[in-house]
Design a protein that fits this description.
The protein has one domain. The chain is 26% helix and 24% strand. A five-stranded antiparallel β-sheet has the order 4-3-2-1-5.
């Protein structure tokens, strides 16, 4: 294996292990109660389209790493960061109407799409909205 192949492999492995939750140094509330009870306060504060996204993710096989959705305050608005399924996919940020905002990380370079390069410096992480707690062995056929 030549040096270039080793470098590419290292970049891919690094990007795959990079999670949106580790990008920010802000403290975060890890209220995962929204995964079980539909009447919780957290769910009442979570936009309907985000709850639909969670339902959709629950119907998919378990991601590796497991899917996570965090709520942030960014540029004066609440936004939601959704982890990627793996490796060189973007970690996306959407607004409260589920409209695409940007991808602050992920992709082949790990630096996202460049549309919000300041995201992890400027955004304030508010809470964990949802994390897929299923195990790999819980995958649907």
């Amino acid at each position: 294996m030549n040096l270039l192949n080793c470098f590419v492999l290292a970049v891919v492995l690094f990007a795959c292990n990079r999670k949106i939750s580790n990008e920010s140094s802000a403290s975060v509330s890890t209220d995962t109660s929204s995964t079980t009870s539909p009447a919780t306060t957290s769910q009442q504060q979570t936009p309907a389209c985000i709850l639909q996204k969670i339902d959709s993710l629950k119907r998919e096989p378990v991601w590796n790493p497991p899917a996570e959705i965090y709520e942030y305050e960014y540029d004066g608005s609440k936004v939601y960061a959704i982890s990627s399924n793996c490796c060189d996919f973007f970690n996306t940020v959407i607004d409260s109407e589920c409209k695409y905002v940007c991808a602050p990380s992920g992709g082949f370079t790990g630096r996202g799409d460049g549309k919000c390069a300041d995201f992890f410096k400027a955004a304030k992480q508010l809470r964990l909205v949802w994390k897929d707690e299923r195990r790999q062995s819980d995958k649907k056929p």
